[in-house]
Amino acid sequence: MEIKRRAFNQLQHEISEPEISVLLGARQVGKSTLLKQLEKEAKGKGYSTRFYNLELASDLEELAGNEKDIFEKLSSAAQIVFIDEFHYLKNAFKIFKAIYDSNSKVKIFASGSSSIEIHKHLKESLVGRFKKTMIYPLSFEELQQIPSFKLQTYCQWGGMPGLIHRNSLPSKAELLENIVSTYLTKDIKALIQEENVRAFNSLLYMLAQNQGSLGVVANLAREIGISESTVARHLETMSQTYVCHALSSYSSNMANELKKSKKYYLFDLGIRNSLLKDFRPISQREDQGILHESFIFLELIQQLKPNMEIRFWRTKKGEEVDFILLKNRIPVPIEVKSHLQGMSIPGGIQIFLKNYPRAPFGIVFNTHLTGETLSENRPVFFKRLEEVTDLEYLKEIL
Beta partners for 214? Predict the structure, then answer.
């Protein structure tokens, strides 16, 4: 079946807009499929189109040559040009800028799996000329288009789109292993020195094993046996290739809060499980808590608006809250609990609400309880894990 992506509605409106539309995200999260769906939509509206996949040698060769030749080729290719994996195109942004500024009325959709240098050039070369859309693995909400799809399945296999066409467990595991292997052999070997690939792989595994835990570069370096600067570069590479999200701590200049530590989450639970070689159902897992916490985080980041961000909170005393959702700088503490006997407010939320009077309420995501109680004369909402798919209710209470 074909899943309708959350990003499609916005992107289809961009068909008639002149700005360069840039889709960014990790490998195999569905960028190519989205581009093809957009091409089909554009053709249906009467536009002429041309699709280039720069991972194909024939298409890459067609766009080889000097900038002037490529500019002329793209300017006359069609009304709408789709370029998949555009980061393989040398001086792509300079060429895109020239096309936009030439008033040639050629619309470009471009996708990329690596943001090395991309963001710098977007700001420098295409400022005011582009629209960026992040493409993530399928969200739980999107996967619910599959009849009877369950949260347990998502925590076991994640949201990589290729999985929906595979039914057997070995076939699914093989796909995820291939994605990890392709990432290491294609993207990483092209970005780091050969002798560092093994250390990179060790760091990737360590992040999977300790997902959601506090990570300090010095500690990671010591455990792997490489320099802090190398660990920092590897973490940046993971971020730049969209496979790892680094979460910073929240602070309002309170001296007792942690500032250097970060929490790390791999971009997909299925990829994490593949690295750990553990595809057991969540009911049999010892790490249920981190699977549920990761699920909430991965759902939240897909719903963030420009005025929102996510952090975590922890003090030197060990007081902590899993996530702090900031909207217009107003903090909302969020805890994730797999097992609750009743609506007992987690201690971290109570302390946070006491320390931060601006926080209007707290949220406790859990497996089965729904309801509302009070702490520091402010509401704390208990919501089932599945309810994270819609943050629209925040409009009414924040």
Answer: 263
CA 158 from centre of chain: 12
- Type and span of the H or E element at 151: helix 151-157
What pLDDT, on a 0 to 100 scale, did the predictor assign at position 189? Answer: 74
Which is it for strands 20-24 and 130-134: parallel, antiparallel or unpaired?
parallel
Query: Residue 1 pLDDT > 80, yes or no?
Result: no
Question: In the structure encoding, which two tokens stand for residue 315, read together?
Answer: 């003090």
Digit-coded pLDDT (tens) for 123-145 = 556 666 889 899 999 999 999 99
What's the rounded Cα separation, in Å, for the pair 180 and 362? 37
DSSP 17-76: S-SEEEEE-STTSSHHHHHHHHHHHHHHTT--EEEEETTSHHHHHHT-S-HHHHHHHHHH
Taking Cα atoms as reference points, which of 68, 77, 92 lies closest to residue 39?
77
Cβ atoms of 32 and 53 within 8 Å: the answer is yes
Instruction: Say how many Å lie between the first and final Cα of the chain, rounded.
Output: 37
Neighbours of 105 (CB within 10 A): 9
Phi-psi label, residue 253: left if phi above 0, alpha if psi -120 to 50, beta otherwise: left
What type of residue is 162?
Answer: G
308-314, strands of its sheet edge to edge: 308-314, 320-327, 330-337, 362-366, 378-384, 371-375
Three-state SS across 62-82? HCCCCHHHHHHHHHHHCCEEE
Q: Can you tell me whether residue 155 is helix, strand or coil?
A: helix
Any idea which residue has 């080729």 for tokens? Answer: 73
The one-letter code for the residue type at 382 is F
Q: What would the pLDDT profile of 245-266 be if each residue is shown by its tens digit?
A: 999 999 876 555 666 689 999 9
3-state secondary structure of 164: helix
- Give, for 109, the enclosing helix (H) or strand (E): strand 107-112
228, 270 contact by CB (below 8 A): no
The CB density around residue 279, as the number of other CB atoms within 10 Å, is 16
Burial class from Cβ neighbours inside 10 Å (0-12, 13-18, 19+) for residue 219 reads middle
